[in-house]
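Could you help me review a protein record that somebody else here produced? Here is the record exactly as it was handed to me:
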Amino acid sequence: MTDTTHSTDSGDDARWTSVTKRGGGAPAARGKTTIADGVVEKIAGLAARDVEGVHAMGSGLSRTFGAVRDRVPGGGSSKSNVTRGVKAEVGEVQTALDLEIVVDYGVSIADVAGDVRENVIAAVERMTGLEVVEVNIAVSDVKLPDEEEDEPESRIQ
C-alpha cells in the first residue's frame, strides 16, 4: 500500500513524498500469543507463597515426594517446587486455577484463602493478560508450631 502526501514549503514550490506502509493494523494485532499451563502455574505458585499464613503448597504426600526427588541428583527441579500444589487450565483468553495449600496454625483460613485468591488473580492477570475465572483453594493441612518440617534440610549451605 502506497500513500502519496503533498506538502508545501514556505515558497511556491511543492514537494511530493511517497510513503509505503507495511503490514496491516496495530503491531499487537499481528500474530497470536499462547501461554503454557506451566507458565501460569509458576506465576500462581509464587503469588500464593507470598501471602502471609501460607506455610507450603501441595499435600503432605506431594511435599514428601518432592523433597525426596529434590535430593536425587537430576531428579528435582526448581519448577517442581514452584508449581507444587498448583494446577492451571489455560484457554485462549481465560484461565482457571486449583491450589492446594498448607496454612500456619493460628491464622484465619478464610482470610488466608481470600488473600491468596486476590494475590494470585492480580499476578496472573497482570503478567499474562488472561482473565482468571476461578481460583479454587483446598487447605490440605495446618502446620503446628512444634511439628518437624516434612522436607529435610539440605546438607549444602
